[in-house]
Amino acid sequence: MQKVAVIGLDCAPPRLVFDLWRRELPNIDALMRRGLWGDLRSCHPPITVPAWSSMMSSKDPGQLGFYGFRNRRAYTYEDYAFANSTAITHDLVWDVLSRAGKQVILLGVPQTYPPHPVNGCMVTCFLTPSRDSAYTHPPALKGEIEKVADGYVFDVDDFRTPDKHDLLRRIHEKTRKHFRVAKHLLKTKPWDFFMMVEMGTDRIHHGFWKYFDTEHPKHEPGNPLEHAIRDYYRYVDGEIGELLALIDADAAVLVVSDHGAKKMDGGICFNEWLIQQGYLTLKAYPEKVTPISPQLIDWSATRAWGDGGYYGRLFLNVKGREPQGVIEPRDYERVRDELIAAVAAIEDPQGRNLGSRAHRPEELYRETRGVPPDLIVYFGDLNWRSVGSVGMRSMYSVENDTGPDDANHDWNGIFIMRDGGRDDGGVHLEGLQLMDVAPTILRHAGVPIPADMLGTVIDASRSGHGMRHLPGAALPA
Predict the structure, then answer these.
(1) In the predicted model, is pLDDT for residue 215 greater than 60?
(2) Has residue 473 got a pLDDT over 70?
């Protein structure tokens, strides 16, 4: 039975942490040298919501019933809802721990807004509307947080902005306030389980990836922001070091991310493509780039439409299900088969196959609660994002329709765990999955693992095939 501390770095990819900059992250490196570490495979889709909740519930997104930030609430054209904490109906790790009498501290963990009672304290996440909101449990904690942070910051607003120097300043400011509160809570509140998630790592990837990645199509060698992400990681590593100094030496410490990041080669204009393929008809084609909306669509002549984002969600207009459905239910699977084949055939502007894939949700999940997309689409294995707007007159875009964005999400995040004072020798593990984290936390906390959790406890016995020790002299260059 141990205390357990989880430090979440949203979107942190193995390439940066384990390979490119490990030498420059001494606190993370020290955890790796004594602990267990490896790539952590994300969920479908690999995005913040639902990934953190999948990690902390050990349930897949289909069981959770949400497939992104915005989800259809019914088979209508306009009834969408944001997936905040009220969407979660399964126990999360802190619910199990609270019932077991363990004291918890939660700070910035996605999908904790609005706050709900725990045996301890909670400061909610980037989905919090504003500082005017009730964002703490207990409610009286809010004044304390505002004072410590000198004005708390939940997220980096407008991180898709062309003003990169101001963006960089705001990312650092947000992170500094966040870690200041984390250190305050560790010093002043009793705890058995502590968890924080830093969103700055995600925001800096989307804002600055092209500046360091020589393979990015928009990279300019020698640019003045070339080291912005590296220097930020150095800063975060220093903050992690200060946190570790406040955590008992015999506590289990985990550093995890919900998914990774990679360069974005461009965008596939999903609805433009559906128009070209004859599945989507507009009442009138817009003269300028316009977000897709139900008012634009001629539903009597439309079989499918799509949403934009880091992945694509495709919806079918089915008779008897949607208000103006046209696809006969008997033809539903045939149309899905057609679209799966058409997505797989998509080529880039040079005529090369992108390697895109469309998946039936029921093949990805154990169940599909809520209103899932009819197909979940990954363009170019996530090298290309889905652009939902229309008016481009092309299925290709070199810009994101919601503002400048250099990176897309990737399948693998990071997992690092130091088991208290134990020295596991820096063992590299393979085959780790997002849902393994929750049962691992509960095992270290000495609390029974619910039988319906899907993950498997991570420990040194899982080294097996592909395990390797990393001696000090064998770090990547």
Answers:
(1) yes
(2) no
What is the distance between the alpha carbons of residues 426 and 117, in angstroms, rounded to a whole number? 37
Which structure tokens are listed for 111? 């999908």
Q: Is the pLDDT of residue 466 over 60?
A: no
In three-state secondary structure terms, 61 is helix
Q: Are 388 and 271 in contact, with CB atoms under 8 Å apart?
A: yes
Exposed/middle/buried for 23, CB within 10 Å: 0-12, 13-18, 19+? Answer: exposed
The span from the CA of 312 to the CA of 377, in Å, is: 5
Residues 218, 162: contact at Cβ < 8 Å?
no
> What gap in Å lies between CA 56 and CA 439, rounded to an integer?
9
DSSP summary character for residue 431? S
Tokens for 106, please give them.
Answer: 């939660």
Cα–Cα distance for residue pair 150/391, rounded to 1 Å? 44
Tokens of 320: 């008897």
Q: Write the Ramachandran bin of 68: left for phi over 0, alpha for psi from -120 to 50, otherwise beta.
A: left
How far apart CA 475 and CA 145 sit, in angstroms, is 40
d(CA 342, CA 274): 10
Q: How far apart are CA 66 and CA 440, in angstroms?
A: 24
Asked whether 260 and 42 are in contact (CB, 8 A), the reply is yes
Q: pLDDT tens digits, residue range 128-141? A: 999 999 999 999 99
Q: What's the pTM? A: 0.95
Measured between alpha carbons, how far is 15 from 150 in angstroms, rounded to an integer?
Answer: 35
Confidence of residue 399 (pLDDT cuts 50, 70, 90): confident
Give the Cα separation of 145 and 136 in Å (integer).
Answer: 9
pLDDT, tens digit (0-9, with 9 covering 90-100), for 223-279 = 999 999 999 999 999 999 999 999 999 999 999 999 999 999 999 999 999 999 999
Are the C-beta atoms of residues 386 and 308 closer than 8 Å to each other?
Answer: yes
CA pair distance 44, 457, nearest whole angstrom: 21
Helix (H, G, I), strand (E, B) or coil at 101: coil
The position carrying tokens 């063992």 is 427
Span 12-34, pLDDT tens digits: 999 999 999 999 999 999 999 99
pLDDT digits (tens, 9 = 90+) for 146-200: 999 999 999 998 888 888 999 999 999 999 999 999 999 999 999 999 999 999 9
Q: How many other CB atoms are there within 10 angstroms of residue 226's CB atom?
A: 17
**Mean pLDDT of the chain, nearest integer:** 94
d(CA 53, CA 47): 11
Taken in order of first residue, the domains within the chain and their CATH numbers are 4-263+410-474 (3.40.720.10), 266-404 (no CATH)
